[in-house]
Automatic annotation (TrEMBL):
Source organism of this protein record: Pseudaestuariivita atlantica
Record's protein name: PH domain-containing protein
Residue spans crossing the bilayer: 21-38
Keyword Transmembrane helix: yes
UniProtKB keywords: Membrane, Transmembrane, Transmembrane helix
């Protein structure tokens, strides 16, 4: 029986998701309701609306965050960062579950440095865990990391 290499893994997450659209619409609707029902001050409403601008900007651009893993390297791309790390340079992959149940992925490199991947390009922790282990990477999972 021969070991067949694991197929390349590719993950994409667009900025314009149903969840993001619903959250922005809900916030804006809530601000409108606060104005009508509570006679909220325009300044407070403006600050509330400013909070949604980064999400609206991301949805308008609709940049797609990606993570790719094959037998040679792990690569990622977001609106602000791109990078590639050869697999032999990775000592361990650390998956931290945060209190908001999101997953933070940190690469511990053989030279002792650590590289944290942007959260928007990290897939579900069970998927990335199995994918990394299939390529022989050491994976450590931490539950409920605060920082």
């Amino acid at each position: 029986m021969t070991d067949t290499p694991a197929p390349p893994f590719h993950f994409e997450r667009p900025a314009r998701t149903r969840r993001n659209v619903v959250v922005v619409i809900t916030v804006l609707f809530g601000l409108g309701a606060a104005r009508v029902l509570l006679d909220a001050a325009w300044g407070i409403l403006a600050v509330g609306a400013l909070v949604t601008l980064p999400a609206v900007w991301d949805m308008a651009r609709n940049h797609v965050a990606t993570l790719s893993l094959d037998d040679r390297a792990l690569g990622w791309s977001t609106a602000g960062q791109t990078g590639t790390v050869p697999l032999p340079d990775i000592s361990r992959v650390v998956l931290d579950t945060r209190l908001d149940l999101s997953t933070r992925m940190t690469l511990e490199l053989r030279d002792g440095s650590k590289l944290r991947l942007p959260s928007e390009c990290v897939p579900d922790k069970d998927v990335i865990d199995a994918t990394c282990r299939a390529r022989g990477l050491d994976v450590r999972r931490n539950a409920f990391a605060l920082l």
